[in-house]
Design a protein that fits this description.
heterotrimer, A alpha/beta, B mainly alpha, C mainly alpha, B: 2 strands, globular, C: mainly alpha, ABC transporter involved in vitamin B12 uptake, BtuC, 0% strand
């Protein structure tokens, strides 16, 4: 049996499933880490569970965890499509080309790729504007720091991470012109011990606020042990460290999107779209600002959050210069999504280089 | 009392039978595990061992994938087995695999968008050379300074991973990739791609090379002077030295060969199934290949079979996750058990069980 | 660059913490290898220890009990390796690698419902007066108990191997198991003891990660620490004090490179990030080049199968 007849068979099976209507809609999820990572993959899986809860018997979900990017991803996706999935969420940037490849072979299956930029007739992309949350964090960080040193644990030098650093810095500086950022590139998404060491190093060098773009709660624990240092939860709420050191958090909230897209497939209204949602639509949530933050700072942060949510304010609004002093955005100008998506430069005031 | 007695020569009968027994034992133990996790044990075992080969809707796709998954494992393991037989411990094949991919892809990308038919051979050569060069570091340090190759080759894996992260977000980054990490996709560039040679067989140049390497290693070990020297050094380094074997030369050859094969495997993978250099390109083939080498008793044909078996458990494991919702941890545990049973039962080829008192010599 | 931002006292204090997990695992593995057994499953035993320690500490609220159970868990897994390699005479390298797979899978299953939970705090040992000493107080006298225990273990293993009869027997078994057997020593029993000890140490190292250094439970949280421990034993050319040196060197460079990054050192981050591995290689080369054939210090029977009828 060759692939064409195989595909025809799969298509037929899908067609029958559609006709029978009693068959539940099958939604697949592919995760890059274990669902027990407590961060990125964990939150995507929470989204999957929300889909199950919302639709009950009308939807069946399947998932695969720990799928390396590259060759394995393409196989896993193909097998998932062969098993009769109607909609597949691929939740890591590195799945971009495999998703496009497999989507070509299965025109009747809908695909949703997270954080990428390649789309097709049956491939949507979706991502979250985490930098909006970083703006709120930056504001709190700028107000709360006494040493004026903010530590930032970064993962890899990619646009997503650079955007976060810039956004946090711009808003910290806005409320505290003396603030200084110290960035450590951990070169890992997930290595709790290394994250703990990085936090420790930053604290020892005077940082009293730690921001992180890695997934484990190790920096929270390091800050708690050191005392007098505040942190923010990343990916998940990390509420177990509230009210101190964790004073707030950025939570990935995929559930509304996953439910909406599944509904679209059930209704037959699914179309390829590019979604980049932030605080407004609820894809990025700001975890509760804890009692350790003074009321006026909290009010200021919440006001900023509301302004971003309503669209009244964009975190990257001019005047802004690049690190080397060249002008980037003029007074009142707002960054376009293309530049933001591929951001590979620091804004003026940040020190150090982005590893290239 | 029960005791083991060494057989004068390994039993061919048992050597053939034990893997089968081991797989059966694993199935039994695995059934208990899966039942404890609340899954239908029979279905789980069937999904892992049977469905990748014979399931009506998956098999046509997953059977060729066995080749794709097993190819690099076999290729790397063949290279490693030569050194392991001679007591030379290259633990860092993962690093050589990564460096091969970087050098090979880098050589190709430097000539983008050439459409020359020489491009792919050039990339293969560069890949093998990259792996060879990375393996030469522990080799030269060992021959010059007596530095232990286990440590050096292992540490170089982490160095290679750092280089990989660095080049995928810097030097080799796709200029048309909007600033995202990862190189151009070589699959989409005909002259540099390592495509499936015959549709729906999974055969790409890497798999072909793996099969050639099996034959090559078999001939080398059985018919060639170098093979004899390797085996002799493994059995008795002192005897080997009396027989005129130059240990430094052997170290350079064995590490170099295993590095070159691992590097080539990396290139075939990056130009074929993986498609691009990315931060997470290395997926542990270099370490799994060590298991494959020993599972195959360091014998070329054994390695071929062991590679296919490992590939089967990977793909079957994926299907079990997909269809039964088994956590990937359970699959890892299951693979560990399979290894244990295979290794434990290996004994029966070399020893026989005797009941009774030991004879007095 | 502002190097004055790096406080050497704090640096030393935190490198001791950073190095403790690999130190514990490596000193255990040293004893195992001295007995002639190569157990590459350190990573698997560490992560099993990490999960056992975490689960028990959370359930009972006692980190001390957690550490005890971590040692037991690591030892139990190690004995599985012992059973396979000593009684069933399986290949040690492959069995060790299998043990890593097995341990990673097992720990993930055990820890499933413990993700995102906080561990009970392990108190830092504040010794009155001594802890307040300048410099020394912070470096030497204000760690948690496990840091001291790891140092005591190094000293203990050193003394055991060098001065005790038991150590002599252990070394004899590792150097030439046939001769040791002929002399009437129970080779397999001695090796099993060493293997269990190695597993217990690796388990403690893992639990130090999940209970003190990180502290949390997540799948795969050891992230390769077991492999580093293995490398450290080789680095030490099978000597106890050099295990300490190797672990502190590695931990030290790791902490230092992060500090240099934070201080904005003008060294490319990629280079800093790979420096712990490069410097470890470099130091070993320098040390092995000075002494002819330092690598030959490996126990002669390392990794060889022992069977009494040989």
């Amino acid at each position: 049996m060759n692939l064409t007849t195989l595909l025809a068979g799969a298509a037929l099976a899908l067609g029958l499933a559609g006709a029978a209507a009693a068959e539940p809609t099958k939604v697949g999820f592919v995760y890059v880490g274990p669902i027990g990572d407590g961060g990125w993959s964990y939150e995507h899986n929470q989204g999957r569970l929300a889909v199950e809860e919302h639709f009950g018997d009308a939807v069946e979900t399947i998932y695969q965890e720990n799928v390396p990017e590259g060759a394995d991803a393409e196989r896993v996706l193909t097998q998932m499509a062969l098993s009769g999935a109607d909609l597949i969420f691929t939740t890591s940037f590195g799945y971009m080309d495999p998703t496009i490849n497999v989507a070509k072979k299965f025109p009747n299956v809908k695909f949703e790729h997270a954080t990428g930029y390649k789309r097709a007739e049956n491939v949507s992309t979706y991502s979250a504007r985490f930098y909006e949350g970083r703006a709120v964090q930056g504001t709190i960080a700028g107000r709360m720091t006494k040493s004026n040193i903010v530590g930032y644990i970064a993962s890899f030098p990619i646009p997503e991470v650079v955007r976060g650093i810039n956004s946090a810095y711009i808003h910290a500086r806005k409320v505290n012109p003396d603030v200084q950022f110290k960035v450590i590139w951990a070169y890992t998404w997930f290595d709790p011990a290394k994250e703990a060491d990085a936090a420790q190093a930053l604290i020892e060098q005077g940082a009293d606020v730690i921001l992180q773009h890695t997934d484990s709660s190790a920096p929270q624990a390091a800050a708690e042990k050191a005392g007098g240092v505040i942190t923010f939860g990343q990916a998940s709420d990390m509420a177990e460290y509230a009210p101190l050191p964790r004073v707030s958090s950025i939570i990935d909230n995929w559930a509304p999107y996953y439910i909406a897209r599944t509904q679209a497939v059930i209704d037959g209204t699914w179309a390829s779209v590019d979604t980049w949602d932030g605080i407004g639509p609820g894809m990025v949530k700001i975890g509760e600002i804890s009692s350790a933050v003074p009321e006026e700072v909290k009010a200021e942060a919440l006001a900023l959050k509301d302004a971003i949510a309503s669209g009244a304010y964009h975190p990257f609004t001019g005047p802004l210069n690049k690190q080397d002093g060249t002008p980037w955005l003029a007074e009142g100008e707002v960054a376009d999504d293309g530049t933001l998506a591929g951001m590979n430069f620091y804004v003026e005031g940040l020190t150090g280089d982005i590893p290239q | 009392m029960i005791r083991l007695e060494k057989r004068p020569a390994p039993s061919r009968f048992w050597a053939g039978l034990t893997p089968v027994l081991a797989v059966l034992a694993t199935m039994a133990a695995g059934a208990v595990l899966f039942a404890a996790l609340g899954k239908d044990p029979v279905e789980a075992i069937r999904t892992i061992f049977w469905d990748p080969l014979f399931h009506e809707s998956f098999a046509a796709y997953s059977r060729p994938q066995l080749m794709v998954k097993a190819g690099p494992l076999i290729l790397i393991a063949i290279g490693l087995s030569l050194g392991f037989r001679a007591g030379i411990w290259n633990i860092g094949a993962e690093g050589q695999y990564i460096m091969g991919a970087i050098c090979g892809a880098g050589a190709g990308l430097a000539l983008y968008p050439s459409e020359s038919f020489l491009l792919f051979p050039l990339m293969v050569a560069a890949g093998a050379l990259g792996g060879w060069g990375w393996a030469m570091i522990p080799a030269v340090l060992k021959t010059r300074f007596g530095t232990n190759e286990i440590l050096v080759s292992l540490m170089l894996v982490y160095v290679a991973e750092n280089i990989l992260a660095s080049v995928s977000s810097g030097l080799l980054r796709n200029p048309e990739g909007m600033g995202f990490p990862g190189s151009r996709n070589l699959q989409q560039w005909a002259a540099a791609a390592n495509p499936e040679l015959i549709a729906n067989t999974g055969m790409h140049w890497g798999v072909v090379t793996a099969f050639v390497a099996v034959i090559f290693a078999y001939v080398l070990l059985n018919r060639h002077m170098l093979g004899f020297q390797i085996r002799l050094t493994g059995q008795s380094p002192r005897a080997a030295r009396f027989a005129g074997v130059d240990p430094a030369r052997l170290i350079l050859i064995c590490l170099g060969l295993s590095g070159a094969l691992a590097g080539a495997a990396g290139l075939f993978e990056v130009a074929g199934p993986a498609g691009q250099i990315s931060i997470d390109f290395g997926s542990g083939y270099g370490f799994t290949a060590i298991i494959v080498a020993f599972l195959g008793r360091l014998h070329p044909v054994g390695i071929l079979l062991a590679g296919l078996l490992m590939a089967l458990t990977y793909i079957g494991g994926e299907l079990a996750q997909l269809m039964l919702g088994l956590p990937s941890a359970a699959i890892q545990l299951f693979q560990g058990m399979l290894l244990f049973f295979l290794l434990a039962m290996d004994m029966s080829a070399n020893y026989r069980v005797r009941i009774g008192k030991p004879e007095v010599a | 660059m502002d190097l004055s931002a790096i406080n050497p006292v704090l640096l030393v204090a935190s490198l001791m913490v950073a190095a403790t997990p690999i130190l514990l695992a490596a000193i255990g593995e040293l004893v195992v290898e001295k007995s002639g057994v190569l157990n590459l499953g350190v990573e698997g035993m560490m992560i099993t220890g990490a999960v056992c320690g975490f689960v028990v500490a959370v359930e009972t609220g006692s980190p001390a009990l957690g550490f005890v159970c971590a040692a037991l868990g690591g030892a139990a897994l190690a004995l599985l390796f012992g059973l396979l390699t000593q009684y069933l005479m399986s290949n040690q390298v492959a069995t060790g690698l299998g043990l890593t797979l097995f341990g990673l899978g097992l720990s993930a299953l055990i820890g499933q419902s413990y993700v995102g939970i906080k561990a009970p705090a392990t108190p830092r040992l504040e010794i009155p007066l001594l802890s307040d000493l300048p410099v020394l107080g912070r470096i030497v006298f204000s760690h948690d108990l496990m840091v001291y225990l790891s140092l005591a273990l190094v000293a203990g293993v050193w003394m055991l191997l060098k001065y005790s009869r038991a150590g002599l027997i252990l070394r004899a078994v590792g150097e030439n198991h046939e001769a040791a057997h002929a002399l009437g020593y129970k080779v397999i029993r001695i090796r099993l003891t060493a293997i269990a000890f190695g597993g217990a140490c690796a388990g403690l190292g893992g639990a130090y990660l999940s209970l003190v250094r990180v502290p949390q439970w997540t799948e795969g949280m050891t992230a390769g620490a077991g492999w580093i421990a293995l490398a450290i034993v080789v680095f030490a050319s099978w000597r106890a004090w050099r295990v300490l040196l190797g672990a502190y060197l590695f931990g030290g460079i790791t902490v230092l490179q992060l500090n240099l990054q934070a201080a904005g050192a003008a060294i490319p981050v990629e280079v800093l990030s790979m420096s712990p591995y490069l410097i470890t290689i470099l130091v070993l080369v320098v040390m092995s080049a000075g002494r002819a054939r330092a690598a030959l210090n490996a126990p002669a029977s390392l990794g060889r199968v022992f069977h009494a009828s040989n």
